[in-house]
């Protein structure tokens, strides 16, 4: 695996009001790596993901994507970065209820300027692959939890993002459905060479990753022995 | 449960007579199954033979209770190595892990680091089993699941124990 990180946070500090969320967090992921970010509730793991993805800006510290500073970009630049280079999958409520499943999957392509027929054709190609054949025209209310999550996964991967940010992607699913989603996520990410930042508190989900780090009290324990590493 | 290493760990706290070691072992690690005196003295005899403890003083009277045992540098190194080394992840290891955590707290050692190492060892094994599941047959998957659920149960215990270390430390230190 390359030593040059694709995403990286250095000494990141962020508070919500008086409450510190990150107190000097360091993390990095190599291209194509699947990295699990674990830790107890309130440890700061989701906040760290939001910082890495350029959604939240740290009070201090550096965020880099492919060597470029993300924390010094303006909102438009970060928005473009998120749309063109990143994918997102969360625990709940991600699909736009007014749109069909295939329109939901096509959404990032349409927002990126693709023409509707081309975007829909590309979106449809994901349905068989994720075991969703025949559900293209359903709206989110007509899908089971596992189906909706797979549609969300297809939407997050349709642009072949360089980094997929997944925050408790199986959190609302039963064990078997959760496993199917994780299996699809990992298989597809490996095929596409997508780096995955996977926030989870579940060891069984983290076991799909190449490596794990633990966030505790706003810092990252990356299991680097003292005196070693950067 | 490793009786020799646990007794050695108790001696790392302070030099003790055999009956004191038995008492503390029974309180913290016996769980309703007291250690026979014979086993305590036989174990101490072997530890002395192997250079891990020495007899510091012999009191008046007769019998093994006259002796006070002190851990040697070699014995202390062995305790340290044992505490810091993750247990082989497999079901039913809780008693060893439990003994390690309690002793680490008694001795003021970095129990949290030990738990982190154990978590890492567990997750490494879980990754292997997950890969087996993804690439193997359904029968392989069933077997892997059995292991995964047990390892996950250990990890939950590790998480909960990690969250309670401060309180636990107060209870086992004196």
Automatic annotation (TrEMBL), chain A:
Entry keyword annotation includes Cytoplasm: no
PROSITE patterns xref list: ABC_TRANSPORTER_1, ABC_TRANSPORTER_2
Pfam families: ABC_tran
Coiled-coil blocks: none
UniProt domain ABC transporter: residue ranges: 7-228
Record flagged with keyword Nucleotide-binding: yes
Highest taxon above the source species: Bacteria
CDD domains: ABC_MJ0796_LolCDE_FtsE
SUPFAM superfamilies: P-loop containing nucleoside triphosphate hydrolases
PANTHER family per the UniProt record, alphabetical: ABC TRANSPORTER RELATED (PTHR24220:SF685), IMPORT ATP-BINDING PROTEIN (PTHR24220)
Protein name: ABC transporter ATP-binding protein
Organism name: Planosporangium mesophilum
Automatic annotation (TrEMBL), chain B:
Sequence ranges assigned to domain Transcription regulator PadR N-terminal in this UniProt record: 7-80
InterPro entries associated with the record: Tscrpt_reg_PadR_N (IPR005149), WH-like_DNA-bd_sf (IPR036388), WH_DNA-bd_sf (IPR036390)
One Pfam family in the UniProt entry: PadR
Protein's name in the database: PadR family transcriptional regulator
Annotated organism of origin: Planosporangium mesophilum
Taxonomic path: Bacteria, Bacillati, Actinomycetota, Actinomycetes, Micromonosporales
